Amino acid sequence: LIKQALSLVLAIMMITTSVPVFAITATEATLSIGDVKAVPGQTVSVNISVENNPGIATAIFTVTYNNDAMTLNAVELDQEFGGTYTPGPSLNSPVSVTWDSSTDNMNNGNMFKLTFDISDEADAGEVYDIKISYGVGNICNLDEDDVDFQIDNGTITIVNPLPGDINCDQAVNAKDLTRMRKYFANWDVEVDPIAL
User: What is the pLDDT of residue 20?
Assistant: First the structure.
């Protein structure tokens, strides 16, 4: 009887220690703005992107940035993301961004591109925040249920111009040569005009 009880205990221990444990984690829907570097006087683009999109039909959010250090020239909807963008009355901070779709859009990736002119007076070393916020009920699906998004704000870091640093990554290397060739072949690429 003792042997049978011991065998039973050992069998239970083997089963419980050999069964893999699976952790179930929910992935949060995220609305994020990229981080970029720029030199004073440069035009730069920053993307607003969506990850883990559960499906949205309408989104109204606000983008804020430093009006003294930069000027927002354009807010462009990424055509691959889809939907419709309705521009607000002004591109001065705070900027209202309104997007909608006739279906629950479940696309991920770049949603918008923000294009900024950096002030000639911006100081190297300064980091300027670009923030997104939205109110309750301002991101919803077609059933009019709220859809919550985690927000990852972005930055534009001002750096000193470096001669030859065509792509503004604070290094002079083969990437700059590649970017320069693309620029002169009329590709749609951004370059640091000071470094040309």
Answer: 44
**Alpha-carbon span 134 to 96, nearest angstrom:** 10
- Of the CA atoms within 13 Å of residue 141, those in its CB half-sphere come to 13
Q: Is 27 helix (H, G, I), strand (E, B) or coil?
A: coil
Residue the block writes with tokens 């239970």: 12
Q: Is the pLDDT of residue 176 over 80?
A: yes
Query: How confident is the model over 71-84, as pLDDT tens digits?
Result: 999 999 999 999 99
- Cα-flanking dihedrals φ and ψ of residue 154, to 5°? -120, 180
- The percent of the chain in helix, strand and coil, each rounded to the nearest 5, is 15, 40, 45
Q: How far is the first Cα of the chain from the last one, in angstroms, to the nearest whole number?
A: 88
Judge whether 123 and 158 are in contact, CB under 8 Å: yes
Cα(72)–Cα(67) distance, integer angstroms:
8
